[in-house]
Design goal:
CATH topology of the largest domain: Spore Coat Polysaccharide Biosynthesis Protein SpsA, Chain A
Number of domains: 3
CATH class of the largest domain: Alpha Beta
Oligomer: single chain
Structural class: alpha+beta
Number of helices: 20
Distance between the termini: 67 Å
Shape: globular
Amino acid sequence: MYSLYAQLTSKYPFFQRSRYKYIAIAAVFVLFLYTFFHIDRNGLEVSSRLRNPFRASSSSSSLPNLTAIVSDAASYFTNYPLPSSAFGELGRRTELLTSWIKLSDTLAPSFTPNETATLDSALNTALLASFPFLRNPSLPYTSTDFHTLQQANRAPFTALRHRIRSGTRGIVIPAGKPQFRFAAHLIQNLRAVLNSSLPIQIAYAGDGDLPHEYRAALCGLAANVSALDVLSVFDDRSLQLRDGKAGWAVKPFAALASDFEQVVLLDADVVFAARPEDTVLRTLGYNETGVMLYHDQLVSQNKFVDRAEWWRWELKKAGRTPSEALRKSKVWTEGYAEEGDSGVVVLDKRRLEVLTGLLHVAWQNSREVRDEWTYKMTYGDKESWWFGMELSGVPFAFEEHYGAVLGDKVPIRSGANVRRNGTASVGLKMPKEKVCGFSIAHAGEDGKLLWYNGSLLKNKAVDQKEFTVPEWWMIDAEWVKGATKADVSCMKGGQVLAVDADALRVMSETVERAKLVDKAFAKLIANLES
């Protein structure tokens, strides 16, 4: 059947432009016929498998067809690798591969071990052709069993799925030496103050990124804190993550490498006001989709037109229309510049589509792609999360509000109350105060402060000693962004909100814990500053 398809695509080039769509249709159609029907002298009849769908078919006649189709696709993917610019086309491939893996999982009970291994090998070859970082030449498994080591080398995506421990959930904090101090503060925030019981993994990229003495210090701060070398799982040749050279890029690989089934990925400079297990892992959007993301500040309207056009072009190349989440986006619909704050990302890797969508996110952060596209078109990794899921057809949820400001209440000077168009505000009742600070804050589903970025310091970019416990915040109003990281950003035109007492207590206690940690690790911190 595939040879007929090849003849058709060579004769009619139109079908080549939708190659993967028609391969998928053909695969599903053939599997449907072979699995649920049989042909005899009386014609096409329903098979016993369809009459009793809970009984596995004794026939494996559908396997050669799926295996042949996947093998042909794997050969095509290998012979025609995608360039670093092919974001949308990789989304097509990712969605297609996901559908084949799901078919394989569904039909697996009717396969023999040899048949399963053959199909698994074809699937892994196709995945490796699209995501070469999956190959792990160092074979990180401690097992000396030959079959286990062989599987890690020949079927790395299968091995990656097998790494995931069923029923687990935990926090992953990517941290190199520059993030060491903030990671220590975050561990205190989560364990000592909030009493979070979630296990914590400190993810790093090789000994040069986070040397042994720093890992030992972090892991010794609290119970159930461990270290995870991302490069023990993935091939660094296409990533160039080693020794912390890539900064943000390690984050999606940390989420992939973790053996947690549900991952709460946190930047080291995040501060939580409530336990993650009681909040971000229980949001409606996360439970519906398996992906919970957070918005950035709403700024720079219509100032990054090329970025917006690029997003739309790649979505078109992926053959997709905007998802429900994207249709609600003010960045997508109103032309603002910054969509995602990736300080917190929550992922349910039990869902296959989330795991494969994460592969696309990771690809965007591989060396060639990030250097030539991702980090040129956007700022760091932060937009790659929603964009990778969107292009791969994976549902995701954003928080309800865009990023809020957290800081100090500041009077608005006389004469500053003007409309956006510059006309006087005579006769209008304008707010007389704004909120200014250096942190972007996020509300929980209860409307209270949930978490913020930027660390416990007032402004980590200019002063490494001054801590702060901000008492005010503002949400869903107009941002006035500082020109540089040394300049304060403000929000005006909205209601000035007092931070609730519970959040103030958490922040105050975390600051005191952080000061103690700084004293305990004074030598290690001093070595970083020298």
